[in-house]
Write a structure and sequence with these properties.
About 45% of the residues lie in helices and about 15% in strands. The protein is an alpha/beta fold and about 240 residues long. Strand 3, helix 4 and strand 4 form a beta-alpha-beta unit. Helix 2 runs parallel beside helix 3.
Length: about 240
């Protein structure tokens, strides 16, 4: 039986190139990417996934043209407005992680409303990273730890709690088991650097708008073939 990863994280890359190859504006690629998000969210629980973290907008993406940024922010808001009711119906708890002080007011209001409406979800924890930087989150968590007089000796578990607080996580989240990146690139791009310490990595040339539930199942099938040792010896050597 295939071992399913409980926590899957996805770097959703390739929207712009998908659009360019079709002679479309980049915004069309982002809209197609939003449809891919809906497909994967629906498929994740049946694949055994309990936590799903999606990289939607990095803190470095503010360097993009203002028109594209504005379109992306409106797309995020529209996605939350359209999908919140479905998340409630299907038991999905939605959480936007990252900085919030730079988000447009309308988007921030949609985030707060979606999180409140879906807080009872128990089937899937869907985390969408917006204005997110793992390096910035680590620095913010370190500041929280330094100003926590009751923390005592700082442990990995205690630091993880500060890290959750730094990115506005609504609930404790386990480490990432499987990290998927679409679009052909093979780098982490400042995403979940702490949480992916022992994650299995799956890179695919498939552009994000073309990513289907079958692609998710393929990545999970490969995950099931890997022996995760976390620094220990392989089972064959340990037995000898």
């Amino acid at each position: 039986m295939i071992q399913s990863p409980l926590h899957v994280a996805i770097i959703m890359d390739g929207n712009g190139r998908w659009a360019r190859r079709r002679g479309l504006a980049r915004a069309a690629g982002h809209r197609a990417g939003a449809r891919a998000v809906a497909r994967v969210v629906r498929a994740a629980p049946d694949a055994g996934v309990r936590w799903l973290t999606l990289y939607a907008f990095s803190s470095d993406n503010w360097k993009r043209p203002p028109l594209e940024i504005g379109a992306l922010m409106e797309l995020f808001r529209a996605y939350l407005a359209a999908e919140t009711a479905n998340c409630v119906e299907t038991g999905v708890r939605l959480n936007v992680i990252g900085r919030r002080d730079r988000l447009p007011r309308a988007l921030l209001a949609a985030v707060v409303a979606a999180e409140a409406a879906t807080r009872g979800g128990t089937v899937l924890d869907l985390r969408i990273a917006v204005d997110y930087s793992a390096q910035d989150a680590l620095v913010a968590a370190a500041r929280l730890a330094a100003h926590d007089p009751g923390s005592g000796a700082l442990t990995r578990q205690a630091f993880a709690r500060h890290l959750d607080a730094a990115v506005h996580a609504v609930a404790p989240t386990p480490p990432v088991d499987l990290l998927i990146r679409t679009g052909g690139e093979q780098r982490l791009s400042d995403f979940l650097l702490w949480e992916t310490a022992y994650a299995e990595l799956f890179f695919t040339g498939t552009m994000w708008p073309d990513f289907r539930p079958g692609d998710l199942r393929e990545a999970i099938a490969l995950f099931g073939t890997r022996e995760r040792r976390f620094g220990a010896l392989p089972t064959t050597l340990a037995a000898g």
